């Protein structure tokens, strides 16, 4: 056995383990050491002369305190007097000119010699791409619109404000597109932050080079960034390659991969060291190092990704080994997925998001086993690519090298690259499915929140139950609780009409005039519905004509136990509060549904499998959008609704309520500026969505008697606000456009005080019949979008509510059982939920029927929650309680 020394590059190193990214003086001088990360020039500049022994280290260090003092730099001499200070400073302009560089050549000498290093230093950690450029490419939106959108978001502008008052600036995009762009913007901001963090970490490790910095700063995906950063992470778990590196096999492995020097396995043997005690173990260690380098090379990984995009990747589902140990009811739900395969790689027919979410849930429950399968040619094509790539580096045509490289390439594919790509595919499918689930939930929530209110109606809310009784609550049109009671219905009795529960219901209906009953869709809903239908049929409530409807009670029990509910109803039990919530949901869905967290409303698609943070972030935007676009009366709006207005928060809403309590009702929007902590930015975002209806103006004092109010203590620097009324405050026109609105009103001879009245609207319609919005914009030198927004606001009647154009609840006076319907029968139903695969429709049989997307006749996009539609029954499965429908 040959003696190990520094002159033999193939000998195992006895030094402390050093990463192959840190190149020392005895390492192989070749760019393959960094393999796509460092060029040769960077390796050479990074070489440092290290002391070879403890003796040399001692020689370098000073031995005594005297030597240390000698080695320390001398202290700077400070001028002791004004005379000395003057001597140091130049006496005249001539002396100043002498001290300055005379020519451009001298100026260049002062600048850094390496411009590339200076440029790298200045731009290190900054992404080489702009967010608005990426958004423009992703959504096909003009670059100028994306740039303006990103700047508006940076200025803390809300989506409702942008969609209504800055729509032309962002290319007239719908708020749904803006919401997706905002989500992408936040993701890209995270990538930029991660880039800065990674670059800073690599700088501390002293492994960052201009080429690596350029690679990192060009990345736009967080997963790709993690892959690029992975080789530099300090992990506690040692990989096979890391163990081989500790044995000193890095230099011979990289020399073998490069093919520039002969490597002898015999010289690496050491019977006293585990891992070097046999030819096989040494060869395996070298293979692990080479496989690690090949498997983590970006070019090689990108090649496999490229091959995958053109291949038919399949998702194979099998029954897991522990499936029989799980809940039998859960097992039956996923039996239809067992031994099925789905296409993943095909862009024309990819796996549907709802299918992948269902499969993922089955995998989480340990019922299903998911496996991604590549075609056989993918592996062979990738191995061939790598063999051709690394065979060119073999100058000596060694058979031993060829065998080792081939084994390493196959090992890299099986152990590193293939699992990596499969994880990426699964992560991409998961992300896509989660986004689809959030989009479905958001669309359904928006439709539910925009359900038409039921004004001027006293509602009797029923929260059904068996053992604990049916909770009842009579609620006035203003939401005031008139009466609460718990009745116990004996559903098995023959004579239901003579029960005490029937008498109690009759008394509540007749005493409080409850012609409308709202029944929660929870436990005992169908039985309570039958009971109420029988009482109506027998004429128990006459002369009052009673009707009823089913209300989604999801989240009602959660709200009834919340601190807000206890504060409003301190004397009532939570069960009774849920009945109040059911009644209010029918009277004003928007006001009541915003009380609870949106994720508790059961109108989504696998929403419980989604990250709570991701779901709530999207749904909170929907709630704010709906509340803002509907508009709220600042003088009567409750705090939980006011806090959802664009630009406001819970704290700011409380400040407005406190100001309203102390100073009385608001008479104009400018008073908002006098509320403590509400500055111009908040006013700009929320003012257009806070209205002061005519009733509020009429109840306030006459404008001639009003005097400006003094600024409150918390409004430092604010001017006194005038209390005079402004009819434009009744509309959704923003205060910044009031002067323009008055000019338009003058054009058609309208009276500002008559805004919202029929005479005013007729004058405007006559004017618009002769002049278009484009002509008005040209005449006034304003944008057409702003003119259209003002004209639309002026053409709306007083107390206009955009929710009135949506379908109202479906009221019934009798019930239909599953046995009453037949195949081919045409019915009217109400959509309760919409998913990717279809819609669930309430047709009055106590069980939602499925309207599959293939039976919607191309109208899927136009259907939403609360829509009333006409359907035809296709099939009935009594045993499974399933009904299939077709849209008429």
TrEMBL record:
<feature type="region of interest" description="Disordered">
    <location>
        <begin position="1"/>
        <end position="23"/>
    </location>
</feature>
<dbReference type="InterPro" id="IPR032639">
    <property type="entry name" value="Tex_YqgF"/>
</dbReference>
<dbReference type="GO" id="GO:0003729">
    <property type="term" value="F:mRNA binding"/>
</dbReference>
<dbReference type="InterPro" id="IPR006641">
    <property type="entry name" value="YqgF/RNaseH-like_dom"/>
</dbReference>
<dbReference type="GO" id="GO:0006139">
    <property type="term" value="P:nucleobase-containing compound metabolic process"/>
</dbReference>
<dbReference type="InterPro" id="IPR012337">
    <property type="entry name" value="RNaseH-like_sf"/>
</dbReference>
<dbReference type="InterPro" id="IPR010994">
    <property type="entry name" value="RuvA_2-like"/>
</dbReference>
<dbReference type="InterPro" id="IPR023319">
    <property type="entry name" value="Tex-like_HTH_dom_sf"/>
</dbReference>
<dbReference type="InterPro" id="IPR003029">
    <property type="entry name" value="S1_domain"/>
</dbReference>
<feature type="compositionally biased region" description="Basic and acidic residues">
    <location>
        <begin position="54"/>
        <end position="70"/>
    </location>
</feature>
<dbReference type="GO" id="GO:0003735">
    <property type="term" value="F:structural constituent of ribosome"/>
</dbReference>
<dbReference type="InterPro" id="IPR012340">
    <property type="entry name" value="NA-bd_OB-fold"/>
</dbReference>
<dbReference type="InterPro" id="IPR050437">
    <property type="entry name" value="Ribos_protein_bS1-like"/>
</dbReference>
<protein>
    <recommendedName>
        <fullName>S1 motif domain-containing protein</fullName>
    </recommendedName>
</protein>
<feature type="domain" description="S1 motif">
    <location>
        <begin position="824"/>
        <end position="888"/>
    </location>
</feature>
<feature type="compositionally biased region" description="Basic and acidic residues">
    <location>
        <begin position="82"/>
        <end position="109"/>
    </location>
</feature>
<dbReference type="InterPro" id="IPR037027">
    <property type="entry name" value="YqgF/RNaseH-like_dom_sf"/>
</dbReference>
<dbReference type="Pfam" id="PF12836">
    <property type="entry name" value="HHH_3"/>
</dbReference>
<dbReference type="Pfam" id="PF00575">
    <property type="entry name" value="S1"/>
</dbReference>
<dbReference type="GO" id="GO:0006412">
    <property type="term" value="P:translation"/>
</dbReference>
<feature type="region of interest" description="Disordered">
    <location>
        <begin position="697"/>
        <end position="720"/>
    </location>
</feature>
<feature type="region of interest" description="Disordered">
    <location>
        <begin position="46"/>
        <end position="122"/>
    </location>
</feature>
<dbReference type="Pfam" id="PF09371">
    <property type="entry name" value="Tex_N"/>
</dbReference>
<dbReference type="InterPro" id="IPR023323">
    <property type="entry name" value="Tex-like_dom_sf"/>
</dbReference>
<dbReference type="Pfam" id="PF17674">
    <property type="entry name" value="HHH_9"/>
</dbReference>
<dbReference type="Pfam" id="PF16921">
    <property type="entry name" value="Tex_YqgF"/>
</dbReference>
<dbReference type="InterPro" id="IPR018974">
    <property type="entry name" value="Tex-like_N"/>
</dbReference>
<dbReference type="InterPro" id="IPR041692">
    <property type="entry name" value="HHH_9"/>
</dbReference>
